[in-house]
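Record passed on underneath.
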Amino acid sequence: MKEFTYTITDSQGMHARPAGLLVKQTKAYGDSITIWKGDKSADAKRLLAVMGLGVKQGEEVRIVIEGDTEQKACEELQKFFAENL
């Protein structure tokens, strides 16, 4: 299992465009990827679930990755968050 935390810097939070890009990115991996905001979690491969978290600018999320390519997925998702959120 790999995980990392990220504080959202996008002024609109995790809105439809970056959430859609995130879902597309996570579907490229066979791993289980869960995004947490506080005590609420969502499957990062499901757009409505991700958007349902209602993540706003300045809030911290935790991404948990479990699977065969978790190291690669963790590194690439950290880069994705830095570039898009």
Summary: The first helix runs from residue 16 to 26. The helical segments are 16-26, 47-52, 70-84. DSSP finds three helices and four strands in the chain. The radius of gyration is 11 Å.
